[in-house]
Amino acid sequence: MITSLSIKNYALIEDIRVDLQQGLTIITGETGAGKSILLGAMALLLGKRADSSSVRNAEKKCIVEGEFNLNGYGLKNVFLENDLDYDNHTIIRREILPSGKSRAFVNDSPVGLSQLQTLAVFLVDIHSQNTTNSFADESFQVEVIDAVGGTLPLLTKYQNNLSLYSEISKKLVIAKEEKFSADKELDYNAFLQSELTEIPLKGIKQDALEETYETLNNAEEIQEALGSVLQIANLEDQGALDQLKQMRAILSRLSGFSSSFNELQERLNSVVLELEDVLESVQNKMESVEVDPSELTRIDDLLQHVYKLQQKHNVQTVEELIVIEEELSAKLYTTAVLDERIAQLENEQNTLLEVLKISAEALFKSRQKVLPKLISLLEDKLALLGLPNARFKIEHVVTEDFKKLGNDRVAVYFTANKGGTFGLLKKVASGGEMSRIMLSVKAVLATYKQLPTIIFDEIDTGVSGEIALKMAGIMSTMSENMQLISITHLPQIAAKGSNHIKVYKEDVNNITETKLMSLNEEERIVEIAQMIGGNSVTDTTLANAKELLN
Length: 550
Hints:
This protein has 550 residues and is an alpha/beta fold. Among the domains are: 1-132 and 450-519, Rossmann fold; 185-333, no CATH class. It has helices spanning 35-45, 76-81, 113-120, 138-149, 152-196, 206-217, 219-234, 240-254, 259-288, 293-313, 318-384, 425-428, 431-448, 465-478, 491-494, 521-533, 539-549; strands at 2-10, 13-19, 23-28, 62-69, 89-96, 102-106, 109-111, 124-127, 391-403, 406-415, 423-424, 453-457, 483-487, 499-508, 511-518. Strands 2-1-4-5-6-7 form a six-stranded antiparallel sheet. It has a six-stranded mixed sheet with strand order 8-12-13-3-14-15. It has a three-stranded antiparallel sheet with strand order 9-10-11. A hairpin with a 5-residue loop joins strand 5 and strand 6. The two termini are 27 Å apart. It holds the Pfam family SMC_N. May be involved in recombinational repair of damaged DNA. Residues 261-292 form a coiled coil. InterPro entries: DNA_recomb/repair_RecN, P-loop_NTPase, RecF/RecN/SMC_N. Belongs to the RecN family.
């Protein structure tokens, strides 16, 4: 329930705060006093989009704040599902900044409008002259049926099964889309993969292969060059090796004269040994290089194949080709197993569909059983409200579509006259009839479930006299176990309230302001007397007011 409402800088309101109680709270006031402004502020608090034109002073921010006592409402999970911190004493605040931007807070944590709107459904239910046709909405009709029939556990079971079925169905759609796409690419991918497997890519070292190719391709030139090296080194008497040996012998003769000559001789000896080693390697290399046209052709063909694949796939290395080949193989494998995957999903879908059908049928049958009871309850309430001949007929059928609330569809038909022709409720019920129907529906619901705070905005439109008294009695009974707020112009309803708030205008410094005042017993008598006789208060209207209050 809402325990207090604070409004600052909104429309004609400068700064007001009102404390609200359990039971039936009555709000009255002259036309234009600001009752609709009060409702507008409440709607803003509950997630309505902000309108900067409703700010009283554009240089200051507008603040609407409501405090709620949530004890016993079982809303912890709702808070958790919306990433909100739960507190039995919850504060909701809306702000409209001078810039025109708006902000919303729940327990001082910033929230988005969608979060606030989701939460608001469980806190306050506003019914105005423009929204009294909600019972004409199928989803609300089903909600009423489930509340009276106690079918919520069956609905929960059905929705769980629907969730599982929907999840599998989505997976099946995705798998079939993948299969369709894979089938279109299957032949091309298979061709690409076969090209990449024509040569053993994993056994190819491209750098080494290219080096071997260059060696074989230039074998004669290499042999000729290496032969020249050996010839220069080994030329008799004039060869580089013989000359180095002669120089070593000369230095050897001088080593006896000075140790420095011995050192030079040793260094030259190292050069001789190194040259001998180099020449041996040159000899071996020359012997290993052979002119082999067939091997050259084989390597050239292999390299050309590699180059062609690299160019086709726009890569530079054999390793990248291997990655592409593996990816293509994976795609081909996926294509092969998708049929099996689809068959498996179809089996699961069929199984879940049977389970879903069973739960949907149980839900349908349970709802079907409660329809006569619901019709009787509503017709009895309407009889009290001056519609003794009102009759309902509820069409309840099964369809092939599994939706959130079941695979059954509900249509409520209504006639207000004995022997009258039934028509769809939303098409044939007048404004006054719909007001009474909505009150009857809410009264029935209040017996079967915990309702949020209900605000009736002149739901008594089109009624008066004895009917108004009956309507007031129903509201009073409803308010015994819940918080109910009624904005009314009828004294019969105003007199039934346990709390009474008056909305009025007052000029402050030549500026009109809307203000609120909680009325005491004497003030209530005067207010109700004014409602009976207009602004004229007489002994008769005062006596009538006292009689209504008693």
